[in-house]
Amino acid sequence: MKAVGLLEYLPIEHEQSLVDQEVEKPKAAGRDILVKVEAVSVNPVDTKVRSPKDQKEKKLKILGYDASGTIVEVGEACTLFQPGDHVYYAGDITRQGSNSEYQLVDERIVAKKPDNLSFAEAAAMPLTTITAYEALFERMHMKRNAEGATLLIIGGAGGVGSIAIQLAKLANATVIATASRPETKEWCLSLGADHIIDHHEPLLAQLQEKGIGEVDFILCLNDTDGHFKGMAEAIKPQGTICTIVENQHNLDIQLLKNKSAAFVWEFMFTRPMYKTADMIKQHELLTEAAELFEQGSLTHTLTKILSPINAAHLKQAHQTLEKGKMIGKFVLEGFEKGGSV
What we know:
Layout: E1 2-9, E2 19-22, E3 32-42, H1 44-50, E4 53-62, E5 67-74, E6 86-89, E7 102-106, E8 110-112, H2 119-123, H3 126-139, E9 150-154, H4 159-170, E10 174-178, H5 182-190, E11 195-197, H6 203-209, E12 215-220, H7 224-234, E13 235-243, E14 262-265, H8 270-274, H9 281-295, E15 302-306, H10 311-322, E16 329-333
Parallel strand pairs: 9-10, 9-12, 10-11, 12-13, 13-14, 15-16
Antiparallel strand pairs: 1-2, 1-4, 3-5, 3-7, 3-16, 5-6, 6-8
Helix pairs in contact: 3-4, 3-9
C-alpha cells in the first residue's frame, strides 16, 4: 500500500523530510479495525514529531493523526463497528499514523463519521474536537451549562481554538478569543466568540477595558512561556488554566498560589498512549460530536484542501503550519490510483 513517512528527522525543506513508499498492508486483530483512509488532516503535532533530531528509523515512520475513511476489516474482539462503516478518528501517537492507504486503529478511539460531512470535512475534526472537549469539560471541569462563566482562548483561530469556541458557546459560556489579524478576528467572531482581544498586548488590561476583568477559565493554545505571567494575572481566584503547548523554560507556578488557581495539561493522546481504563471516552465524545455536526450545532473548520495524499502535498501542509498563520484546518484527500486494494 502507499504510505508517506520519514526515515530521518529533517527540516521540511529537505528532499527526504517526507517520502513516498510502498509498505505492507496490515491486518486487523483484537480490538483493531482496518480503515481504508479517504482523507487526512495535518496538525502541529505532525510538524513537532517530524522536527529535526539525531535519530533514524529502520522502517518508515508514518505520521498523521487525523483521518476519515471506510472500515474494511475488524478484529475478532471488535464490538462497535463492522466493515463498510464510515468513520473518523485521531489515532494513537505511539502507532503508525494515518498518512497511508490503510491504517490500523483501536475501535475505542473511533466513531462513525457525521453523515452530513464529507470525508475531507470529517478528517479535519477529530484531533481538535477531542482536544477542545477534553480541555474544557474534563481538564478544567467546565459545566455543560456554564452560563455566567467566562473563558479566554489564547489562539482562537487555529484548529483547536476554532472548535473550542463552538463547544464553549454550546455550553453558554462567555468566550473571549485572542486574534491579531483582521481575518483571524473575523473567523473567531463567525464561530461565536463574544469578544476579541490581541494576544500581543497585556491580557488583563484588555479584559478590564471590555468590562470583563479576570476570567474563570483560560485555554492556552499558543506560547505557554510567553503568556504564563499574563494568564496568572488574568485568571480569577480559584480559576483554571489549561494549556496544550509545551513550555521551553521553567514556569513560575507560585504566581498562581495566592489565587488557589489550577494549572493543567491537555494531551489528547494520553488515553490511547496509556490504554487507560476510560479509553472508550474518545469514541463516546466523537459520537456526541458527530450528532452535533449533524444537527448543525457544530460547524467543521476545514479551510484548505489538497489532493492527492502524497509527500509533496504533505510537505506543503507542514510548511504552512510551521509558518503559524493557518486559520482552521488543512486536509489532504485521496491517494493516487494504483495502490493496494
